[in-house]
Amino acid sequence: MSDTRIEQIAYQLEECLKYQSPQIVTIELFSLKDFADADNKVAVVHKALDTMRFSKTKVDAINYNVGTEDKLEYYLPIAKFHTRWKEDDINKYISNALNNDYELIPYYGYHATIAQTYSRIENEKYVIDNSEICYLDEERLECLDRITQLCKENDIKLIYVATPYIEQGGFTNSEQNAYIKGLDEYTLENDIDVLNYHLLHDEIDFDNTDLRDKGHLNIGGAVKLTNHFSNYIKEHYSDLLSECDWDYKDESEK
What we know:
CATH architecture of the domain at 6-36 and 113-244: 3-Layer(aba) Sandwich
Oligomer: single chain
Helix content: 40-55%
CATH class of the domain at 6-36 and 113-244: Alpha Beta
CATH superfamily of the domain at 6-36 and 113-244: SGNH hydrolase
């Protein structure tokens, strides 16, 4: 889910495992980014938790992620914005949604941006500083460990993936790479695969023309990364793939 952090992923995974039995779980490592400001955290936590069914897991997630004074709006998501319909700027929101104005209001539907390339490229070569190393604090490492333990308890292979980008929300690719390096010992001890595409950009022939903007791939970049990742899974975990049903049914069979 867009912008979700490890603090929410741990509970999302716990909820998913009530209904599904995956062989492999992949965690995208932009989730290592800490919250830059309180408003951003509110939006991210709402997106992550609002669609969860009411359960002990959701209560635990709210208790962990939300301050005492704000909890009601997460149990009843309509509480905070239920008067929005009569505010002066409501017509702007409706107009932007109807006109698919993604620049003003994103997330109103999928936008493939097939032909779009990052327009402010100064250098096509993808650049990453691999000299620094950073470590998660103890509380955030415990969140990561919660995910790890859930996977171990359910015999799931855990894979970390870092998608290449330049900067997003004040979190640069070099900063993310530094935190990934800080997890080297942890991932080795817990048998976690790491596909750090910041450092694999030459292998997949990735450069800045494969970006839509500073923080997202365009369709060309997505194809390169997806092809490499899917081939990696087939090469290393074909035994797990053999247990999956890959056959698609047409409408008449549903």
